[in-house]
């Protein structure tokens, strides 16, 4: 979890200050991390991780942002943030999955995901190199093992053997895995967040006791849904 602030001024900004107020009302300043982003006099960017670097505890917190210009005019904005737990492992699986926010931003904040958005979302998981859109062979094979124990998935998906995974090959591969079909329990041709979480959870419930424990989900959730 992190805070990222962009501020603009018509003439020139002096600085951005960010504070975090905990549930007891205690306020402390958050130290900025240098991002390497080049700034101009009218624009400044502020970035700092909140979790785990700043040891934020659970509960309702308030982020307070102050932007000051060279004339000492100060604009203040605040945002309430509800932190469910200190650690991901303290949450049950469905809550942990929902807390990633992955479903919302992968689906344009709609309440249900159709197969087109589903395949595109899976493609985005596997395409972690946004510069040239190359997909790593090892990651595809690891994805296969982590999502149902499918070995050598790359070999099965790269049907034209050009060492590049086309989107059409991913679509065909996902169709063969039948994730969307199996997880769409009410057969309305879309997936709700609950259906998606239950489908993923069923694959990650290694001992098949109908409970997805942190030792079963934490590594995979961080790897695929919180990259």
UniProtKB/TrEMBL annotation:
InterPro entries: EF-hand-dom_pair (IPR011992), EF_Hand_1_Ca_BS (IPR018247)
Family annotation (PROSITE patterns): EF_HAND_1
Protein name (record): EF-hand domain-containing protein
Origin species: Pontibacter fetidus
